[in-house]
Write a structure and sequence with these properties.
Layout: E1 3-6, H1 13-17, E2 24-26, H2 33-38, E3 44-47, H3 60-68, E4 72-76, H4 79-87, E5 93-95, H5 97-103, H6 131-143, H7 149-161, H8 169-178, H9 183-196, H10 200-217, H11 233-242, H12 258-266, H13 270-292, H14 298-312, H15 317-326, H16 331-350, H17 352-365, H18 369-385, H19 393-396, H20 400-411, H21 419-425, H22 431-447, H23 455-475
Parallel strand pairs: 1-2, 1-3, 3-4, 4-5
Length: 486
């Protein structure tokens, strides 16, 4: 996507390609569209047409951002001419007579370039005539000696007084006749019109595309501007609402923006609050990592990726590629996420004691404290009464493999190849600490009359665990040695 052009009723995409074939042609620009496209880093953006009435118009600040990011931005004919006249001093390039008229103050009203048009299915076909085109056509009729200057002036006044969707030559001639203008001139003008009508907007749009094509042939360096882009609260709102997550920046109308994604999450209630809080903690951890100068090594990032893919069950290449596509990610962004996860884990470890001190209060706020505290107390009392405050594997009557198989079966996860890493992710010092906790829980459940699993079933699960780990080892995944605790 080296060049992107927003066009519509002024110049259909098919006609535009005859002037600049190597471009992506998008619908009329609206609020947020330039930002979305600029995020893909095209060399150039051209703006011809834009929405302005039923949806918010393209914002000046998103054009300034694109310029500050080194993108050449051109405007002409319609919305592009308006924005170029306003932003020429900041580096936007205007092309054509309409742009010059706005820039020089000869034109001021936005309705000079506005037209009614059809939907996308019609190619945004114009349903009215732009005032700038009417002015140019009337001036040409005077030069051709079809109209007198007085009649031209009167026709301009009649056209300007009409609401922009109602401007067309047939209506203009009816209104002029009703106002008593000379019938002979009006009939001469009517006969002259088909061939004599001037489409100033189209001509300017074509001129812009030709300039962009010539500029591309020179392989221009990134745009340089002499201003510093200043983000604001309003700019943050634009980027939040306009940021595309699925890469669909080409005007299909079905792009997944963050705001649309948030709507779906908000509508299911509690998960929004939970995931929002998780995102907050992630952002705070990344800030803390930056302050501490933490950077993930390639090896650590690769290890984090292996653990993540194992947790999701997408170790196989095809399954992983499908997961990336489903989550609108590419490999570089996934690698970035894993590097972020490494430094977040480092911050979590550094702040472990502080975090754990606050965990009881977090459980109270989540209304989970009473349930877990009651179970912890009951477990401690039962094991003390049995003289087994810290049961060993022998007390549980199970092997380490059986205990692990029981645990992973209970939590509904595949057996972790990197068991020590899995244990650390749960806040245990090592795998042995988790095994001891599992032994306490297993014995407690047995003491309470609960049969975790029949012994033959445990043996089956343990064999399956060993087989799975062996298979993963052959596939290249790291295996936790079964003959060693931790």
């Amino acid at each position: 996507m080296n060049v992107c052009v927003f066009t519509g009723p002024t110049l259909a995409a098919e006609a535009a390609r005859a002037e600049l074939d190597d471009a992506v042609y998008l619908p009329p620009v609206a609020h947020g569209d330039v930002y979305r496209v600029a995020r893909r880093r095209p060399a150039m953006i051209g703006i011809v047409d834009g929405f302005f009435e039923r949806v918010p118009a393209v914002w000046h600040k998103e054009i300034l951002w694109a310029l500050s990011e080194g993108i050449h931005v051109f405007g002409s004919a319609s919305m592009g001419a308006l924005r170029a006249a306003e932003l020429e001093a900041f580096g936007m390039e205007g092309v054509g007579a309409i742009f010059e008229a706005y820039r020089d103050g000869e034109l001021e009203d936005d309705d000079e370039v506005a037209v009614a048009h059809g939907p996308a299915e019609t190619g945004y076909r114009a349903g009215s005539e732009a005032m700038v085109n009417i002015r140019a056509t009337l001036a040409a009729a005077v030069r051709a000696e079809v109209l007198t200057e007085a009649t031209r002036s009167a026709l301009e006044e009649i056209a300007k007084a009409r609401f922009y969707p109602e401007r067309n030559y047939a209506d203009l001639l009816r209104q002029a006749a009703a106002c008593g203008l000379a019938t002979s001139e009006l009939e001469a003008f009517r006969a002259w019109l088909p061939a004599g009508a001037v489409d100033r907007k189209r001509a300017d749009a074509v001129a812009m595309l030709r300039r962009m094509r010539r500029r591309l042939e020179t392989e221009p360096a990134p745009k340089r501007v002499d201003f510093t882009f200043e983000p604001t609260v309003f700019w943050e709102d634009v980027t939040l609402g306009a940021g595309v997550l699925d890469g669909d920046d080409e005007g299909s109308g079905g792009a997944t923006t963050l705001e649309r994604l948030l709507d779906e999450l908000r509508l299911i209630g509690e998960p929004y609050r939970r995931e929002r809080d998780g995102a907050l903690l992630r952002a705070l951890a990344l800030e803390a990592a930056q302050r501490r100068g933490l950077v993930a090594s390639d090896a650590d990032a690769a290890e984090a990726a292996d653990r993540f893919r194992h947790t999701l069950g997408v170790q196989e290449a095809g399954a992983f590629e499908r997961w990336l596509a489903d989550n609108h990610l590419d490999h570089p962004r996934f690698d970035e996420l894993m590097r972020e996860q490494v430094v977040i884990d480092a911050v979590r470890l550094a702040l472990e004691r502080t975090t754990l001190r606050g965990l009881a209060d977090q459980l109270r706020l989540a209304d989970r404290y009473r349930e877990l505290a009651a179970r912890a107390g009951a477990k401690a009392r039962e094991l003390e009464a049995r003289g087994l405050p810290e049961p060993a594997l022998d007390d549980a009557g199970s092997t380490r493999e059986e205990l692990l198989a029981w645990h992973f079966g209970r939590v509904g996860l595949p057996a972790a190849a990197d068991f020590a890493g899995y244990a650390r992710s749960l806040g245990y010092a090592d795998g042995s600490a988790l095994v001891r906790a599992l032994a306490r829980d297993f014995v407690y459940r047995q003491a309470g009359g609960e049969s975790p699993l029949p012994s033959d079933r445990l043996a089956d699960l343990a064999r399956k665990l060993v087989d799975d780990l062996g298979r993963r080892a052959q596939e290249g995944a790291p295996e936790a040695p079964s003959g060693r605790r931790g």
